[in-house]
Design goal:
It is built from nine helices and eleven strands. It is of the alpha+beta class. It has a single domain, classed as Aminoglycoside phosphotransferase (APH), C-terminal lobe (Aminoglycoside 3'-phosphotransferase, Chain: A, domain 2, Alpha-Beta Complex). The protein is globular and about 50 Å long.
């Protein structure tokens, strides 16, 4: 568990794990977008395999106006772009194969030429195989997810990135990667340019709709205002609301791996909608 130390947040890790270095690399990569209006990112003070020190963000009460500014600043962070689907932040150690406790995998530069091909293999089937191998998924469950993944890989759900990402001319969006409510903070200074800050990323190159779907999975204060602020700054592609559940399959499958059977019924219900 993190602890507070002289106004900073301190996390400790294993001398054999790259997880803290991956998190630090993600924070620094996302922070590069601040100069073009991207959301504020917690500053890295110190980073090693065994210790990560980052600034402690002073939080405040949510407001609708702040929520809209958060949405707009998320849009500009996404537009900072990434060079390929599933890419790691540039400062990621060469020894790191992925991020997080379940080793969410990176993808090599030539692994996938489209969102569907990337998402099906690296954000769906990777976890389906783990769940099948440990017995959490039987034949029926695995077959359902495989059917959805096949449709995704074939490009049936591919959609344009939001406008700012497309206008930036980048291959894909720069994602936080774990954008649930606990990692999107309202700032104590409600008049700050972005009104929010991000912590604890699992950053990679992907589709902007995946980050927004994660934010909607467990709820967020003034969520509709965040989405409205985003859509005003960088209009989303037609039909994006119908794709929310599809993008949520990535965190749902990861939660099945990390936390067990409690998430399996919800995951299967979502999958059936896209089968």
């Amino acid at each position: 568990m993190p602890r507070f130390e002289q106004g900073n947040v301190v996390k400790t890790g294993s001398p054999t794990s790259d997880e803290l270095l991956c998190e630090a690399a993600g924070l620094r990569w996302l922070a590069e977008a601040e100069g073009s209006g991207g959301i504020r990112i917690a500053r890295v003070r110190e980073a090693s395999r065994e210790r990560l020190v980052e600034e402690r963000i002073e939080t405040g009460a949510p407001t609708r106006a702040a929520a809209r500014r958060i949405g707009a600043s998320l849009a500009r962070m996404h537009a900072a772009g990434a060079p390929w689907w599933g890419c790691p932040p540039p400062e990621t150690p060469d020894s790191a194969a992925g991020i997080g406790r379940a080793l969410t995998p990176w993808a090599s530069r030539d692994a996938a030429s489209s969102w569907g091909a990337f998402f099906a293999e690296y954000r769906m089937m990777y976890y389906v195989r783990l769940l099948r191998d440990d017995g959490s998924f039987g034949h029926r469950e695995a077959e359902l997810l495989e059917r959805v993944a096949s449709r995704v890989a074939a490009g049936e759900f591919d959609a344009p990135q939001p406008v700012l990402v497309r206008e930036a001319g980048v291959p894909c969006a720069r994602l936080h990667g774990d954008l649930w409510a606990g990692n999107v903070l309202y700032l104590a200074d409600a008049n700050a340019p972005t009104s929010g800050a991000l912590i604890d990323p699992m950053a990679y190159g992907g589709h902007a709709e995946t980050d927004l779907a994660m934010l909607q999975l467990f709820g967020y204060p003034f969520l509709e205002d965040v989405l409205a602020g985003y859509d005003e700054a960088s209009p989303l592609a037609d039909g994006w609301r119908e794709r929310v559940g599809l993008h949520q399959l990535a965190p749902l499958l990861l939660h099945c791996v990390l936390f067990g059977g409690g998430y399996i019924p919800e995951t299967l219900a979502v999958a059936r909608h896209y089968a």
